[in-house]
Amino acid sequence: MDKLKTGRIIKVSGPLVVAENMDEANIYDVCKVGAQGLIGEIIEMRNDRASIQVYEETSGIGPGDPVYTTGEPLSVELAPGLIESMFDGIQRPLDKYMEAANSSFLKKGIEIKALDREKKWDFQPVLKEGDKVSPGTVIGTVQETTVVNHKIMIPYGIEGTVKEIKSGEYTIEETICTVETSNGLKEIIMLQKWPVRKGRPYKTKLTPEEPMVTGQRVIDTFFPVVKGGGAAVPGPFGAGKTVVQHQIAKWGDTEIVVYVGCGERGNEMTDVLNEFPELKDPKTGESLMKRTVLIANTSNMPVAAREASIYTGITIAEYFRDMGYSVAIMADSTSRWAEALREMSGRLEEMPGDEGYPAYLGSRLAEFYERAGKVVCLGEEGREGAVTAIGAVSPPGGDISEPVSQATLRIVKVFWGLDSQLAYKRHFPSINWLNSYSLYLDRIGEWMNKNIASDWTKLQIEAMTLLQEEANLEEIVRLVGIDALSEKDRLKLEVAKSLREDYLQQNAFHDVDTYASLDKQYKMLKLILGFHKEAERALKTGVYLEKILAMEVRDKIARSKYIAESEISRIDEITTELTSEVDTLISEGGVLDA
Ligand code: ADP
Ligand code: MG
Asked: Are the beta carbons of 404 and 357 closer than 8 angstroms?
C-alpha cells in the first residue's frame, strides 16, 4: 500500500465522497475510501480535489478519513470463468460477495476477486515454439462450458515469438506461454484486465449486413436488427420489455449472451438471478447460463454500481467478440441506469439538463451503444466478431418524449415501440407496427432476398402496406360505418386482421409459437398474402365476400403458427388447399346459399 498516495475526505454525500490532497490521482482512477477501503472511482477532478463515486454503502466514513488511489482505472477481469457467472456492476461475484457481506466476520471493503484463482482449466495450445504472435493472436483454447470454447488471446501490447507454450491444467494466473519480445521475455497467463470505460481494440469495423435472427416474427420481418447493431425497446411497465429481452437471449442467433439487469421492481433482479438459470437453451437443451454472463444490480446496491454496470457488461461482450463470436448484450432497463447517472450528477451539483438528467446523458449512452458493432478482430486469423446491443427503456408513463428515450433513439437504428394498449388487449409482443422502425430494413431486405426468397422484400412491403391501410380504413369505419367500404376494402381489413392475429402476435410461452425460423416466417407471410390474392380473384368473378371469409382453409391459416419447424412444408400444402377451395367457390358460381 505504500505506493498509494493518501488524500483526506472533506465531504460525504450518500455515494459521493469528496477528497482533497489528491493531486497525484487521475480521473477514473479506482480509490480505496476510508479505513475500510470502500471501492470508489474518481468521476471528477478539480485541482487536488477528487469527487469519488463509491460502490458501497458509505455510512460510517466521514471527513478526515484517508483515501488511497490505486492509480488504475476501473477494470474487469477477462478469463475462463466468466461464463455462468453472476456479477454486480463492478464485477464482484454475487454469490461469494453476498456470502461474505452477510457473514459477521467480513465487513465492507472486502476484496473478492471477480474470477476464481484456484480453479484449473484445461488449456489446449494451438501454437508451437517459434510461432509469431501479436495482440489478439489465439494461442490456445479452454472448453469453458459444454457450449463455449474460450479462446486465449495475446493481450494488448505484446508482440514477439513463442519461446515456450504449455498444455494441460492451469489456473488463470499460471504462466501458459512465454513470448520473446523486443524488450525481453513476457509471461502470458489466461487472465487479462481491461478498463471498462474504454472500448477494446479491433482491426477494422465492418458494415453489418447480416440479420441477428430472433425468431420473433414482428422483429425479423418488419423491424430487424443486424449482428453488430443496436436496438431500443421502450415501453411502459408491463408492456413486455423483459420478455422481449429474454426471448432474444434464448433465441437470438448469437453465441454469447451478456445480460445486464438494472432492477425495476424491488425484487425483480432476484427473480432474474433465480429465473435465468432455469431458462433452457433451445440449441443445446442445457441451461442458458452455459453461454451467459449475468450482471445484476439489485435495488439494495448503491446507485454508483449501477452506473458502471453497462460498461462492465459491454467490455465483457467485446472480449468474447474478440474471440470471433457473435455476442448479444441486453440492458434491462437503461432508465434505471440513467437515474443513477442523474443522482450522481445532482450530488456533484452539476447544472441539470432536461428533467434533471446531466447534459452528458446522450454522450454516455452513446459510449455504450457505439461499442456495438461488427469487426475484424485483432490477430492474424482475420476472425470476425459482433456485439449487438439491445437496451430496454422504461419511460415514466410510457411517454417516449422524455430524455432517456430521446437520447437513445438518436443513437440506435432500431426502435421497437411497446404499446400499453396492445399489451392490455394481450396482443404480444406489443410492438406497435405503426410507429416502430428499423433503419436496417433495406440492407436486411437484400440479404433476405438472396438467402431466404427472392420475393421476400415484395411480400414484406405488401404486408406492411396492408397494416398501414388498415389504420386508415378503420378511421373511415369509425366515421361512416363498415357499409361505406367496398368489398375489396373490407377484404383488406380481414387480411390485415389476419396479419395482426396470425402473424404479428406470437406467444413467448407456447412451445412451438415461441420461435419461428426465417423460412417459416416466409411461408406464413406468403400464405396470408396468398389468401388475399386468391380472395381477390374470387371477388372479381362475383363470389360474395361472406363466402370467401367462411372458407374452411382460413382456420388452417390462423393455426399455421403452431406448425412445428420440422413440418413447415405443411404450410405449402395449405396454400394448395387454398387455391383449390377458391377454385370450387368460383365454379359454384359465387352465389350465396339460398
Ligand atoms: P415489462 O418488462 O415491460 O414490465 P414484462 O416483460 O415483464 O413487462 O411483461 C409483462 C407480461 O406480459 C408478462 O409477464 C407476460 O404475461 C406478458 N407478455 C409479454 N410479452 C409476451 C409474449 N411475447 N407472449 C406472451 N406473453 C407476453
Ligand atoms: Mg421488465
From this structure: yes
